[in-house]
Amino acid sequence: MKILVVSRCLFLMLILCLLVLLPFSDEKGCYYALDLGGTNFRVMRVKLQGNRTIDLKTESYKVPPNIKVGKLHELFDYIAEKICHVIETETDSEIVPGKKRELGFTFSFPVQQTRINSGTLINWTKDYNVQDAIGKDMVKELTRALEKRAVDVNVTALLNDTVGALAGGRFYDSNVVAAVVLGTGTNAAYLEQSENILKPYGPPPESGQMVINTEWGNFNSPLLPLTEYDHALDSDSPNRHKQILEKMVSGRYLGEIVRRILERLADDAALFGDIIPPKLRQHYVLATYNVVEMHSDKSTELSVVEKCLEEVFEISDVSLEKKNVVVKICDIVATRSGRLGAAAIMAILKRLRKDTTKNGESVVVAVDGSLFETYKQLNSCLQKTLSEELVDEQVSKMLLLKHFKDASGIGAAVVAASHSIYT
What we know:
Elements (H helix, E strand, L loop, with lengths): L1 H8 L6 E3 L9 E9 L3 E10 L4 E9 L2 H4 L3 H16 L13 E7 L3 E5 L2 E4 L16 H11 L4 E7 L1 H12 L3 E7 L3 E8 L15 E5 L14 H9 L7 H6 L1 H19 L18 H8 L7 H11 L6 H37 L6 E6 L1 H5 L1 H15 L2 H6 E5 L3 H12 L5
Parallel strand pairs: 2-5, 5-8, 9-12, 12-13
Antiparallel strand pairs: 1-11, 2-3, 3-4, 6-7, 9-10, 10-11
């Protein structure tokens, strides 16, 4: 089966070794987290209670499209402004005299990282394209923007979103061995035994384990089931020939793949009549949440599909038969995403199997991200593919995919606590 071969090959991707002190779950104190993802970014104030519980305040913001492709200082000035807004809501009980605020920074893009509080951007993914940022230290840029506003914050830790999700998952459940993000983008991180790492990284950690950030979104192989729609989407993207698996799996691209298929059917089979609706040719006009809504439509006349076609493409008077075609396309695209996601998770499980099946312990994969959380059909396909096709019965009984909401941001806060300058 091709999906099994893809799973075997996935560990030929880029891997980054990270010496991260993961939480012990007894951390205490008030810490901040910045979680910069694809669609939104969140600023969080996390009160760690010391017993796997937290008191959480979160504010979510959208990065304006012009800032995503603007200048580096514009991006971080905007982010620093929002951090200030959250800090201004502090209560007296959250302020410790003589102690700087500490912040964990979750940055969902590939960086070259040699220290816990430093990392230079390798390249952008998703729809970011701030050109003067490549090669710059993201912690220094954030610190500079905060200092311009005289905000007393120390950026203690820089994490990829999957490393944050791994830390957040481990904070709640010590059986977590890997973390996956399925949202606007996709990636995974896992815990590897130090002796299995051939890449030089300095003295081995006392724990005997290191965090591996796989950057699996950048995986590419002739074995991937790329279609003409995938090739066209890649050619039109600002990061051509990069993030190929991500472009097949993640929420940034699923709506666009469906749109391209509908456009071809409109051209070749007059799916929506003899005149092609102009908006059907507009790139990324169909969002993945539109696909989720149409795929989930259970009404007899598929009224949700009808409404979406009208509002997004200005297409009306579509027959029930053709609306069913639209739902089927959504199902095909989501099924491929779920099955490829399962293959990628299986690659990590195969890598860890000798360590994770001992003593009959549960194998927990922490999952965060809006796609996994909201797209129930895709979620179901992913889990069904893992349990029924890819893992054997022994592992299937122990394997748990657990959704940890906001894990990447919470993980940044607890890692900041673990690496606190005051400990």
